[in-house]
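Copper transport protein, pasting as requested.
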Amino acid sequence: MMHMTFYWGRKVTILFDSWKTDSWISYFISLVACFLFCVFYQYMEDRRLKLKLLTLNTKNPPSSSGGGVNSPLLYSKSGGGKWSASRFAGAILFGVNSAIGYFFMLAIMSFNGGVFIAVVLGLAVGYLIFRSGGDGEEVVVADNPCACA
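Structure tokens follow.
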């Protein structure tokens, strides 16, 4: 029977019928796996954004006339062609990240409280490690100003 509210327990099916936990050890290993996959998701998203930044910086290098805000992702997308290798690589990374994100959503839909906490903590720790801008490099991404896109 599928749960429709959050529950706390060691018996959970995550994503596939073959990924079932019956003991506390298998439950803990599954939570660690969810946590690590979430950290990996943030790493992949960081790689995708840096690839996009690198691609746009090589197409349209910022002017060296001091002053103003350096916003390389807001330049026009001229050059490089519609079917360039960098755009193709970016699309592949976007697809992989989207698939992983949907897997997280489905894992959370098991309604197990431990899975929910493992996913949220994994995303937060991954963001802190890879995407919080701790190295002094802040990246502003403005793909589409429309909130519904």
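Note for the archive: The chain has a mean pLDDT of 81.
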